[in-house]
Design brief:
The protein has 18 helices and 16 strands. It is an alpha/beta fold. Bound molecules: adenosine-5'-triphosphate and magnesium ion.
Length: 468
C-alpha cells in the first residue's frame, strides 16, 4: 500500500504507538513487522521515509540499504540507534539516527527533517548531496554552515556547566534560541527558563521585576511579590538586552553573581538563589565598557563563556535551509501549498545582505507564503528591497534617519477625534518602519529616530504586531 511513512518494528506496542502518533500528526503510515522481505518493501518506492531499528537494518547486508537509496533517490531512513552501532556505518546523508529509548517529540522533529530534506531536493531539482542536509539543535536551531555546526557543539558543551554565558550577535541572529537551547540541554531543563527583556521593562520597574518586592515597598506594593530570580531558582534566567541595564541595577546584578544572594525591594533580608545566568545583547558590550556605560567588572562576570552568533550574511549556506524550514512551517500553519522559491528567486535571496538576519528571512517567507498561496515564488513576487540593485537598508542603528515628511491632513467638516487620529498615524508609521526593516526593532527605531526602548514600550502598549 502506498503511504508516506513505512514503520518497521517487531514490538507491536511500539509499532502501534509510533503509527498512531504519526497518523495523528497527519502522516500516512504503513506498519510492518521485521520480516525477511523488508528490503523488498523498502525498495518498492511506495514509501518515502522508512522508520526502523538500526539493528534490524544492519542485520541484513548493509548493501541492501545502499541499493534501496540508489533505486529511490529521495528515500530517507530514520533508524533507532543503540549507542555505538552507527559508528561503522558508511556515512549517508539520507540516514537519520534517533536515540533509544524513543521520544515522540524527537521522532516528530526527525520526520520533519526528513521531509525538509526531500522538499529541498524537489525544489532544487539537483541530485542529493550531503552538503544540503540541515542540522538541528534541540529541534529548533537550524544550520549547516561550519560556524553554526561549531556553535551547536559549543552550546552542547556549555550546557554541561553552570557558567554564566554572554551571547552576542546582531538582532535576529538567534540569541534567544541559543539561550533556550543551552537551558534545554542542561540538567536544569526540568526547571524554569525565565526570560527578562531589560530593554522592554521601564527602568524603575526592572529592579522589582528581577528581585521581587515586599508589601509596602512602594506605592502600589499591596502584597509580597516574587521576582524573576525566584522563578528561575534551580533554572535559568535569561537577561536579554543586558546592554540597556542602568548603572544602579548593574551593581545589584553584580552582587547576585558574586554572592548568589539578593534582597527583594523593600526587604533587608537576603535570599539565596541558585540560578544560571545567560545574558544577551546586540550592542557591543566592550564598547559600552570603554565608554563607561557598562561596568567592566560586571562584563567580566557575565562573559565567563562568550558566544557570538554570526550574522546570516556570513553563513549564506544556511539561507536555503532556513527558507525551506520556514516554508514548511508556514505552509502547514496557513494551509498553503507554496512549493518553493524559483532558482532565480533563491539566488537573489542567497546574495541579499539580510540586515535583520534570520528574523527578517522568517518574516519574508511568512509574507510570501501568505500572499502566494501555491506554486513557486519568483523574483517578481519579492518585495522591492530584495530586488537586485535596490538600495540596501542601513544595518547599524547609528545610520542617518529618514527625513520627516509632513503629511497634510484635512480636518473633516464635522471634526475629528484628535487622539485616535494621531494614534492611527503613529501606528501606520511604526508598522511601516517595522515592515521596511523586516521586523528589526533596533533599525525601525532608528528610522523613526526613537530610542529602541521607547519603540519596544510603544509596541507593547499599543499591542502592535507586524502583519505578514
Ligand atoms: N538558526 C535558526 N534556525 C531557525 N530559526 C531561527 C534561527 N535563528 C533565528 N531563528 C528565528 O529567528 C527569529 C529571531 O530569533 P531570536 O529571537 O532568537 O533572535 P535574537 O538574536 O534574540 O534577536 P534580537 O536581538 O532582535 O532579540 C526567531 O523567530 C527564531 O525562531
Ligand atoms: Mg532576542
Amino acid at each position: 500500500m502506498h503511504s508516506e511513512l513505512l514503520i518497521v518494528e517487531n514490538d507491536r506496542k511500539t509499532r502501534d504507538l509510533v503509527s498512531a502518533f504519526l497518523t495523528y500528526q497527519g502522516y500516512s503510515t504503513t506498519v510492518l513487522g521485521e520480516r525477511d522481505d523488508i528490503f523488498d518493501t523498502i525498495g518498492s518506492r511506495l514509501h518515502r521515509i522508512v522508520i526502523a531499528d538500526l539493528q534490524t537494518l544492519l542485520a541484513r547486508t548493509p548493501d541492501m540499504l545502499t541499493k534501496a537509496w540508489e533505486s529511490s533517490p529521495d528515500l530517507v531512513v530514520i533508524a533507532y540507534d543503540q549507542p555505538d552501532t552507527a559508528r561503522n556505518l558508511p556515512h549517508n546523508e539520507r540516514l537519520l539516527l534517533i536515540p533509544k529509548p524513543l521520544n515522540l517529540d524527537e521522532l516528530e522533529s526527525v520526520v520533519m527533517r526528513a521531509r525538509e530534506y526531500q522538499a529541498l531536493q524537489a525544489s532544487s531539482g539537483e541530485p542529493s548531496t550531503s552538503e544540503e542536509f540541515p542540522h538541528f539543535l534541540c529541534s529548533t536551531i537550524i544550520g549547516r554552515s561550519r560556524t553554526m555546526l561549531t556553535l551547536f557543539e559549543m552550546l552542547e558543551k556549555v550546557a554541561e556547566s553552570n557558567a554564566t554565558v554572554l551571547i552576542q550577535g546582531e538582532s535576529g541572529t538567534g540569541k534567544e534560541l541559543a539561550a533556550r537551547a543551552i537551558h534545554q540541554l542542561s540538567s536544569r531543563s526540568n526547571k524554569n527558563f525565565v526570560p527578562v527583556n531589560c530593554a522592554a521593562i521601564p527602568d524603575e520597574l526592572l529592579e522589582s521585576e528581577l528581585f521581587g518586592h515586599v508589601k509596602g515597598a512602594f506605592t502600589g506594593a499591596y502584597a509580597n511579590r516574587p521576582g524573576r530570580f525566584d522563578l528561575a531558582d534551580k533554572g535559568t534566567l535569561f537577561l536579554d538586552e543586558i546592554g540597556d541595564m542602568k548603572a544602579n541595577l548593574q551593581v545589584k546584578l553584580l552582587r547576585v553573581l558574586q554572592t548568589k544572594e539578593f534582597e527583594p525591594v523593600g526587604s533587608a533580608r537576603s535570599q539565596k538563589v541558585d540560578t544560571r545566568i545567560i545574558a544577551a545583547t546586540n550592542s557591543n558590550l566592550e564598547e559600552l565598557v570603554a565608554t563607561k556605560d557598562f561596568r567592566e567588572d560586571l562584563y567580566y562576570r557575565l562573559s565567563v563563556i562568550p558566544i557570538t552568533i554570526p550574522p546570516l550574511r556570513e553563513r549564506r549556506e544556511d539561507i536555503p535551509l532556513l527558507i525551506n524550514h520556514f516554508l514548511g512551517r508556514f505552509n502547514h500553519d496557513k494551509r498553503r501549498l507554496v512549493k518553493g522559491f524559483s532558482r532565480e528567486a533563491l539566488e537573489i535571496l542567497r546574495n541579499y545582505d539580510w540586515p535583520g538576519n534570520v528574523r527578517e528571512l522568517e518574516n519574508l517567507v511568512e509574507r510570501m507564503v501568505t500572499l502566494k498561496e501555491n506554486g513557486f515564488i519568483t523574483p517578481d513576487d519579492l518585495p522591492e528591497r530584495y530586488q537586485p540593485g535596490s538600495k540596501p537598508l542601513p544595518r547599524s542603528a547609528s545610520a542617518a534617519p529618514a527625513p520627516v515628511t509632513v503629511q497634510t491632513e484635512e480636518l473633516p467638516a464635522d471634526g475629528i477625534c484628535l487622539n485616535s487620529a494621531v494614534d492611527a498615524f503613529e501606528n501606520r508609521l511604526i508598522l511601516q518602519a517595522l515592515q521596511r526593516t523586516g521586523g528589526n526593532k533596533k533599525e525601525a527605531a532608528s528610522l523613526l529616530n526613537l530610542k529602541r526602548t521607547t519603540l519596544i514600550e510603544k509596541l507593547k502598549k499599543k499591542n502592535l504586531q507586524l502583519e505578514p
